[in-house]
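Sequence only, no structure available. Ideas?
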Amino acid sequence: MPSIVTICNLALSHIGDVADVQSISPSDGSVQAGFCSKFYPVALSTLLEQSNWDFATRRVGLAQLADNPSSTWRCAYAAPDGMVNAIAVIPPYALDDYTEHAGHKSWFLPQPDYPNPAIVTYTPQPFAIETVDDGTRVILTNVYDAVLRYTVQVSDPNQFSALFVLALSYQLASMLAGPLIKGDTGIQISSAMAQKAQQFTSQAKTSDANQRRIELQQCVPWMAGR
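Reply:
I predicted one. Tokens follow.
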């Protein structure tokens, strides 16, 4: 299975560097290890932000805040620790992130003020992420008892797919080329590595999307009442 050091050495091999890094945390003292230690976290975060990767996706019930900083959203929730991207805010009983079947009650209003249960609402529901004065990130929405699907910062490379590892190695290589290869040659190699990173990131996204099957159910209120 890949390790962080393996990914770093793979990135170095992409740019023709024969160094064999032994450790980046702490650094083994080599110039290459020093740059890998500096740029690996950036390369990883860059890729994690680009897609809702299965291995980085989590689901959690949100903790509602007593003090809602918004006058336009009904509910305010604390963003979970380690959140990279918020994917969807959904009611707690939703089967998926797309449609809510006819017969379910809306979760927007507290009991007993539910609208007609035959009306179908759609998930995910609108939300916004803001930062309050003390630096806390909050999720604002109109959904009560909301559940969040989101991506997290994953550091264990054993959870990465093979294509993600390749994409990450090329992303890192694009960052290493400049400091390790001086002048125009380093710039050209960095650009080539960035293109390779985009290519393998696209392939990794496709493979990742193929790991799940979602059947959309397009049901609108006038159909639900038939």
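Residues 183-209 form the longest helix (27 residues).
Hope that gets you unstuck.
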